[in-house]
Structure formats: C-alpha cells, structure tokens
Amino acid sequence: MSIVPAFAILAMLAGAPPQATGPTEAGGKAIAISGTDHVETLACDGRAVAITGVDNSVTLTGTCRSLEISGSGNTVMATIAPGGVLSVTGTDQKVRWRSTGEVRRSVTGVDNQVVREK
C-alpha cells in the first residue's frame, strides 16, 4: 500500500474537469438548461431557450425564437429569429448572437459581453 500526500490528491482534483449539475430539458416548444458546467450543443428548431446557472457553455444551432440567459459566467452562441427576444441578466455572461432582422434586447448586470455577429 502506498501513501499519497494530501497535496498530490488536491493537485489531481484541481486538474479534473468539472461535472455538470442540473437538468437539460428539450421539449417541443422550449429548451431549458439549468445548473452548472454544462457543455451543450443543441438544435433550436424555432424554440424558446432559457439558460440559468453558472459556467455553462452552450451552442445553439438553427434559429431560436427567443433566448433568456441568467446567472454568471455562461458562454452562449445562438441565432435568434427576427422579432425575437434576447434577455441577458447577471454577471460575466458572454453571448455571441446573429439574426437576419431586428431583435428586442435587454442586457442588465455587470461585465456582460453581448455581441452581434455578422
């Protein structure tokens, strides 16, 4: 039996990738992701999307009817339908979005980066 010093165990744990917690639900009209550390790529297919939590990384393919993000440290990429809604609240959110038309936007909080891409 070998003895492993506590600092070695802590070093191993620090390098381990985080485990996602919380549900991801994709129904007929909506997608809901909540919790922490999710890494997801999902097809929007015209659905409304709500992302709530911390440190989630989400790529949405296709076009979303609306996108609501709250929490802290989430990174999201999406295409939003013209006339759709983009709502971002919280801190340190990073959102890159596209649309072929105008979108109603609401951004509140601290250090959020919301960028429309061409």
TrEMBL record:
Protein keywords: Signal
InterPro entries, per the entry: DUF3060
Signal peptide limits: 1-20
Record's keyword annotation contains Signal: yes
Pfam families in the record: DUF3060
Protein name in the entry: DUF3060 domain-containing protein
Organism expressing this protein natively: Caulobacter zeae
